[in-house]
Amino acid sequence: MYNPIKELTKREWLIWLSSLAIVLVSNLLTADLDILTLAAALIGVTSLIFAAKGNVWAQILMVVFSILYGIISFRFRYWGEMITYLGMTMPMAVWSAITWFKNPSEGNSSEVAIQKLTRRHVIWLTVSTVLVTVVFYYILMILDTPNIVFSTISIVTSFLAAALTMLRSSYYAVGYAANDVVLIVLWVLASFENPSYIPVVVNFVIFFVNDMYGFVSWKKREVRQAVDM
């Protein structure tokens, strides 16, 4: 359980502090400041920069973020988001934290060992994704969820991202980036009804940038870890 802040490079400090500043300003400028949304965004951004380092603290913070985001989604009746983060992302983040903790890199014990996806992994992901899509679409339909198509896509991308995180794959960040795009659309639609949700849109734009950095970071580390083995 290393202190991940000590491992940050100058570039990562810049990305992290810039992201925090943008999130903070965008939330403070809104006419109706929501402390819960602000707290969730700050924790989420911090989790992502630690995830880019492959540090287990990222998953611990993701558990906290999932709880806060679930509450935010509940208030707007985005049942899919609430169910996804409280019933799927949060427990999978706990599982990922355990997996990452048990599989440190040989070259640097403060980061997780990256795993290449096998054919078995791909088959499992495909089958489970189809099942998740069918089951959750039915649940969302029963709950009369707003913007059900985008909510369903969000669930699918969230599941894939969480599953790839658990599998320690570099492509976890691509899954989360795809989910960020869907969430940007969802909260833009929500903002049409309530402008106070505009900061949430900004939050997920920042998340997207951080997730793409995470993917680049993991691919570079994947090459390095292959050499160290």
UniProtKB/TrEMBL annotation:
It is a multi-pass membrane protein. The keyword rRNA processing does not apply. GO terms for cellular component: plasma membrane. Signal peptide: none annotated. It is found in: Cell membrane. Keywords: Cell membrane, Membrane, Transmembrane, Transmembrane helix, Transport. GO terms for molecular function: nicotinamide riboside transmembrane transporter activity. The chain crosses the membrane at residues 12-29, 35-52, 57-76, 82-101, 122-140, 146-164, 171-190, 196-216. NCBIfam families: NMN_trans_PnuC. Belongs to the nicotinamide ribonucleoside (NR) uptake permease (TC 4.B.1) family. This is Nicotinamide mononucleotide transporter. It comes from Coprococcus eutactus.
